[in-house]
Write a structure and sequence with these properties.
Length: 685
């Protein structure tokens, strides 16, 4: 089920909607029976054949038959539990008297997110296997015609088509012999069928819908791309992120869900490999009522504070912080009144920063609850927002350059709680393209915490970002270390305009990457209109007047955002490596090659710095080439939900993410968010 059907089925994921789910699926079944005649003449998009393991089974034995299925290019079929959308295949058997068919065994599926809906699908050839019981007492040579009618849904990423097929084969009672080529095919198909896990798994539910599942799994066993597929709806939210960690001889999967009792699931442990598990309520390591997630929330909060503190040195944030510090120096807050004013401004600035971080965090949690795979800085995936930020950066740069003064908020001038609040909000908003140490892991943890704890983590990010100015406001000794007011402050203000102009330049480049030359032209034209309006406003201010009607020109410049559209993503340069896909990663690991996979975005400043300073250095490339290290690049500029899902699985809320897969290692090594050439060269060795 895809964009055209998504609105009608968006409510299927909501807890307590089991009756609606059943009604929807009955409706689809009705559509199958009514629409199938209209589509029966077209070639099916799933090529199928019915293959018996033995064409001469013994009387009284069991013979396996496989439905060898090969999707056409760009199409996919569905698992027994289709996920948020889709419909499982319906099998109707016509068998000789006394012959019975068992329940199909389905191979491990793949994940596919379309329009924010999680689908459990097969985009590659697959073969469900069914055991047929042959009646006892049949004479050799007895013919056993087997017929199965399949009604199923087959989809691309844009459309879905209900189809029907009738498959037949004929068995003859015999000696049970199996041809070598058929045995090889069934061996291959059976390897993709999940193996039953002999030991029971346990699960525990936490506050806010958090679900933790503990699964027995040897500590030294290989593990690649783990994912837990619920066998039926109602136990695990399909679109919820999953964090998988090792705890000795157990795996702990943390996600969201509300199972009413024991439930079945399939744990993927590698490409086309899985374990069939059954989880019952019980103890899970690290879960003690609400204490487990509370400790995790405290750790994530501390990481967010440290990450926010580091953001202050970013070129788009540092000028704003510096100007607020200079405003304290200019005000000379030494007396009782000045002391109070400094504290008020510091609290107001902090309030603005935290308010924006909470707003962005709330938007992320809301969108994710609706099925979207968004993360930190999600708004920068929209070129219209890039244009707004471009115009804003140009306006700030012109203000710092002395072209005009802004009466409210007061970026560089006198105090005032309103101006300080607006300045803090602005600082938080323009900091969103950045990510640094501590911050990525903290925000990734927030996505699997209950929503109150998650919002506390986002508030911690804002607190860290506001901490320097907060300390200046409440610690007089720090303010006394600030230089005394003087003419030098205006010169410093002009110097601080330089990083803001560089920020504007970077946003113009990003707009070109996302919306093409036409989009960048619209953005530059909007910036030109804004500059002209502010030049007029500055002339009016020098004459003793206000900005006046120039605000209308500023609004007109922002209207250009409506003219900007996204172009197709640019192809990655060959020198940067291959485009990332889970299939390509799996193939490289089967070959035994070391793999460096990194996830980036054009709007991520930290990503670009790491790429230029470390990843793209000639010495690093030479070291990787000597040691045959494969490089995979995941470009998340446009918010690709498939990449978003993979990033979430590694406990990250956004980019950058750097992973190194050593040959034979069961899990990747997650590298720091600040890279050096020496670090990467050492990996190759």
């Amino acid at each position: 089920m895809h964009p055209t059907w998504a609105p009608a089925f968006a409510g299927v994921r909501t807890r307590g909607m089991a009756q609606l789910t059943a009604l929807v699926r009955l409706l689809l079944l009705f559509l199958f029976t009514t629409l199938a005649p209209a589509t029966a003449q077209a070639a099916p998009h799933l090529a199928m054949r019915l293959v018996a393991e033995s064409s001469a089974p013994r009387a009284g034995s069991t013979v396996s038959v496989a439905i060898d299925t090969r999707p056409a290019a760009g199409w996919h079929g569905y698992w027994s539990n289709p996920g948020d959308a889709g419909f499982p295949a319906q099998l109707g058997w016509t068998l000789p008297s006394g012959m019975t068919a068992g329940t199909p065994d389905w191979p491990v599926p793949e994940t596919l997110i379309v329009a924010g809906l999680m689908n459990y699908v097969y985009e590659r050839p697959y073969a469900p296997i069914v055991d047929l019981r042959v009646p006892a007492g049949l004479a050799a040579g007895t013919r056993l015609p087997v017929r199965v009618k399949l009604a199923y849904l087959v989809c691309t990423r844009e459309i879905c088509v209900p189809e029907e097929q009738v498959l037949t084969t004929e068995l003859v009672v015999g000696d049970g012999s199996v041809r070598p080529e058929t045995k090889a095919a069934f061996d291959r198909w059976r390897r993709a069928i999940p193996r039953p896990l002999g030991s029971p798994a346990t699960f525990a539910r936490g506050d806010g819908g958090v679900l933790r599942v503990s699964i027995p799994y040897p500590a030294d066993a290989a593990l690649a791309e783990p994912y837990l597929f619920p066998a039926a709806t109602g136990s695990i939210e399909p679109a919820a992120p999953q964090a998988v960690t090792r705890d000795g001889d157990r795996l702990v999967v943390q996600t969201r869900g509300a199972p009413a009792g024991p439930f079945a699931a399939v744990l993927r442990i590698g490409p086309d490999q899985g374990l069939a598990i059954r989880a019952a309520p019980g103890a899970v390591a690290g879960t003690r009522g609400g204490e487990g997630w509370a400790i995790a929330a405290l750790v994530a909060f501390a990481g967010a504070v440290l990450g926010g503190l580091i953001l202050n040195v970013m070129p788009c944030v540092f000028p704003i912080l510096s100007l607020k510090a200079l405003s304290l120096a200019r005000s000379g807050a030494d007396g009782p009144g000045g002391e109070r004013e400094a504290r008020v401004e510091a609290l107001a600035y902090t309030g603005g920063v935290v308010a924006v971080c909470l707003a962005l965090g709330g938007a992320i949690l809301t969108l994710r609850a609706g099925g979207s795979a968004v993360g930190w800085a999600f708004q920068l995936q929209d070129p219209r927002m890039i244009l707004v930020l471009l115009v804003l950066s140009v306006a700030i740069s012109l203000n710092l350059s002395g072209l005009f003064e802004v009466p409210m908020p007061r970026f560089a001038g006198s105090g005032g709680a309103g101006g300080a609040f607006a300045t803090g909000a602005l600082a938080a908003f323009v900091a969103t393209p950045c990510s640094g140490p501590f911050m990525g892991a903290a925000l990734g943890a927030a996505l699997v915490l209950p929503w109150p704890a998650a919002l506390a983590v986002f508030a911690g990010l804002g607190l860290g970002l506001a901490l320097p100015f907060l300390l200046l406001g409440f610690v007089p000794a720090l303010r006394r270390r600030l230089p005394r007011p003087g003419a030098w402050m205006d010169r410093v203000r002009r110097v601080l305009a330089v990083p803001m102009w560089l920020t504007a330049l970077g946003l113009a480049w990003l707009l070109g990457r996302q919306a093409g030359v036409e989009g960048m032209t619209v953005g530059l034209a909007a910036a030109l209109v804004a500059g002209f309006a502010l030049w007029i406003g500055g002339r009016r201010q020098r004459s003793g007047l206000g900005l006046g009607w120039t605000a209308l020109l500023l609004l007109a410049s922002l209207s250009g955002a409506g003219l900007v559209g996204r172009q197709a993503p640019a192809t990655l340069p060959a020198a940067n490596g291959e485009p990332f896909s889970e299939a390509r990663l799996a193939a490289l690991r089967v070959e035994g090659r070391p793999v460096f996979a990194y996830f980036t975005a054009d709007w991520c400043l930290s990503c670009k710095v790491n790429e230029k300073a470390a990843i793209e250095r000639a010495s690093v490339r030479e070291a990787w080439a000597r040691n045959k290290v494969a490089v995979l690049v995941g470009d998340w500029t446009d918010g690709d939900p498939v990449l978003g899902r993979f990033i979430e699985a590694h406990n990250r809320a956004g980019v950058p993410l750097y992973l190194y897969y050593a040959p034979g290692a069961s899990t990747p090594r997650v590298l720091p968010q600040v890279l050096t050439p020496g670090m990467l060269e050492a990996l190759a060795r």
